[in-house]
């Protein structure tokens, strides 16, 4: 079956058409600047990217352009839309309502809408994509795959904040966690790749991208994760601050004469390694800066790596041990310097880095020595494939 995987943002949309049997990507691309002007990037497997500028007032026009490109006579990956067996949508926030992926119907859409307050920028955008697909392909089954679902197995002690309990009861204020599709995919791949029994394993997944989070996965189930009610919590990230003293918000608001929205803008967009370095949120730029002697770039990298190492230590404690640590996402997969610096803190766990293996790129890769008590590896994430697999499992 061919599955169209859609990841809808407020003004952009990423897509992949995947053959679920071979798990090969038949075509992929993105729509950008939806509601502004509109730009479609389309790439059929084995061919060059095609870029088309065309008006996309809403997500409906964007998806229509994607479907036209997929079925185009010359470079289309399929002959007609009849060859799309299902659509899998990435959904950001499922609150406590969704503990796993779900077939999309009217009731399910209502349940997602009831979580909109928890992700006011993302959930409505996801639903616009769902409704656009429903209009354009009314008979194709659709599945929603949630960023939060994998973390719903966390025990109460991991998800409750030290706040009045009624805020949890009335408003759902608790830790939810994000990147769940990636943490789920990578923990499973790690167990498979290392020959561990997933049901009897302790794995820490470090998803280190522009957004970054860590999770503790015990016996295949998430028991803790670093993001919280929102993706602002946990690690210092590209532009997000991660965990800070909450009183800083009032302090900065007074000093800089900012309202809540102004402070949140700083914490989301001007903080993290971008804020510390004043140079970039991209680790390639930070590493170049550090090599050139820029002290703040070096500081940003050190803070990031120290943070990652502290969370790994905390999660080893939470699980009373760890069998494997998996690095994934942009920095986790491509950043040997970061991995090396993180591993320098973890000798006490018995994790020993193989510097040569750490330089290799590409597929799943063990980067610890054969004697290392904890296996450390790089396992590329593939959220689109994870969405495709869940979609097929639910519509078959
Ligand atoms: P992601 O959000 O998973 O797409 O990750 C994007 C981030 O990965 C970028 O902002 C960079 O910080 C990082 N990254 C990508 N390539 C490299 C690389 N070769 N070396 C270090 N960091 C990288």
Structure characterization notes:
With 396 residues, the protein is α/β, with parallel strands linked by helices. The protein has 2 domains: 145 residues, Nucleotidyltransferase, domain 5, CATH 3.30.420.40; 184 residues, ATPase, nucleotide binding domain (Nucleotidyltransferase, domain 5). Helices cover 38% and strands 20% of the residues. The strands form 2 sheets. The chain has an 8-stranded mixed sheet with strand order 5-4-3-2-1-6-8-7, with helices on both faces. Strands 11-10-9-12-14-13 form a 6-stranded mixed sheet, with helices on both faces. A hairpin with a 6-residue loop joins strand 3 and strand 4. The longest helix has 24 residues. It starts with a strand and ends with a helix. Adenosine monophosphate (AMP) binds next to helix 10 and helix 12.
DSSP helix fraction: 25-40%
Gyration radius (Cα, Å) is 21 Å
Whole-number total of structural domains: 2
Specify the CATH class of the largest domain: Alpha Beta
Ligands (ions, cofactors included): adenosine monophosphate
Classification by helices and strands: alpha/beta
Which term fits the overall shape? globular
* Order of strands, widest sheet: 5-4-3-2-1-6-8-7
- Major beta sheet, specifics? 8 strands, mixed
The low-confidence parts are none
